[in-house]
Amino acid sequence: MGALDYLSNFCTVRSTSIRGRRKPMQTVEIKVKMDCDGCERRVKNSVKHMKGVKTVEVNRKQSRVIVSGYVEPNKVLKRVKSTGKRAEFWPYIPYNLVSYPYVNQAYDKRAPSGFVKNVVQAVSAPNSTDEKMTYLFSDDNPNACAIM
Prior knowledge:
single chain; four-stranded antiparallel sheet; two-stranded antiparallel ribbon
């Protein structure tokens, strides 16, 4: 019995691999200043050949690069910076997701249209009193006041 147990250890398949776990699928958004087709092509080619990258979208008008795949965000940012371009993670969120878009430091003139900076003051707390009061008379609330 001892010999069979010893040999069975060589034949079993283990669930954990030797290299470790696979990185989760992520979407990394980076702000990169691009002026011409050459800049756009250089940034796209630098990221496209990274291990684990599935798709690369470059939007020169918004100065935005979207990378999807099994990658680490910091490595993607480092690779984009290696092209000589100034790059940072995408600091903006869509305008319609923010409760207070004109709060100090949220509104940015350089932001693409439809976006504001992602700051804590612009997003309301989920249990704030303003939110509760508007929800009382909302059509989405089945227990809302029916007097109106």
